[in-house]
Amino acid sequence: MVKFLRDELDWPLGSDEIDELVFEYEPDELGIDPEIAVKIKEIKQLRPLAANQPWGIFYIGFEPKRLPVVVLRRILQKLVIKKRQSAERAHRNAWNLHDLLFISSYGEEDQRAITLAHFSEDDESKLPTLRVIGWDSQDTPLHIDRCISELAALRFDEELTPGQWRENWSRAFTLEHREVINTSKVLAKKLANLATRIRKRVNVVLAVESEKGPMRQLYKAFQQTLIHDLSEDDFADMYAQTITYGLFSTKKSKPAGFVAENLIDMIPRTNPFLRELLSTFLTVGGRKGKIDFDELGIDDVVQTLRNTDMDAVLRDFGDSKPEEDPVIHFYEDFLKEYDAKKKVKRGVFYTPKPVVSFIVRSVHEILQKKFGLEYGLADTTTWGEVAKRNKDIEIPDGVNEHEPFVQILDPAVGTGTFLVEVIDVINKTMMQR
What we know:
The chain has helices at residues 2-7, 18-21, 34-37, 69-79, 141-151, 162-172, 184-208, 214-225, 232-253, 263-266, 272-284, 293-296, 298-306, 310-320, 326-338, 340-345, 353-369, 383-389, 417-432; strands spanning 22-25, 40-46, 56-62, 100-106, 113-121, 128-136. By secondary structure, the protein is α+β, with helices and mostly antiparallel strands. Strands 1-2-3-4-5-6 form a six-stranded mixed sheet. A hairpin with a 6-residue loop joins strand 4 and strand 5 (113-121). Helix 7 packs across helix 15. The radius of gyration is 29 Å and the shape is elongated.
């Protein structure tokens, strides 16, 4: 790690001897409770990299197999300047919340993992939000490359002011640590970010694959049979949205047992189109027919949905949009976060159910009162009959007089909300009569 920080990120670390680069602490020196301390193997603070350095950089070795977030938060509490303290009066081992970087290692001896963690204050909850960059020996080269590209924002430059350094730092840490998602807004934003990553990775794959590559062959198949002028980025967009939103709908249908190995089996058989399409996309996204979820970032979607309290998300969605199917109407929120311009271009704006009901029933009443059609939307009176009753109405050119006067057309059908309401009105009218 020291070699990487020095050689790749230009950190001024003049020695390979760890003892010369760090201050060592015992947990009790930082006021850490004994029950927490037993999970900590060692705590080291990197010596300042520059004069008057405002930030503190700590290495913490943990015993547990996974990053113990609770322990990390306890350590954070002991190191952060209390709100009522001034910087001058603060303890010598105290920093601002956003001026702390934790480099942590954990796991079994032969399967250790490394995570760089940074806390920032959440604007809404005012609580510390943990964001991480992490990897272990099991990760693919593509995942490692992504981590390295994110860490590039931590490059040391002695000419940077503390403010500029903080800005770079915050840009590096974008992924929250396996947080439990329980609101529709947070889930929409998270899935949108992950879909964007998948889209970028598909574009990368298309750029390096030969004409016989599986992803490029799938792209050509869609271009030939579905959309002839389909661009590579449009295909990558289609792939990313189908994967992300398809997995969301799957999680909603069967929240329990959501694992990578049986995703296709979890898709309801009542949706054969999604089963076939997602099966094809997931298979092509792997190597030699075997799904490699991490290669395109699909595993991140799976892990996010596994760490989502779907019941809480659906309750939250229902509070803001009652009586609307989350799988259908959540897409507007998702697309707004994923690509706001595309949302507008495609006209993805859902009319609230009460408004739909008002419009449809208004048309129903107008047909009854203004045109004398007793059954309104359910009426089967022909053009010829209506023209005889009303001299102001002429049969349009190309229309057969025996065709029904009332016909339903929704040119922007979307989720079919209007058609469902029309069918409901027709059904109730006929049942009443």
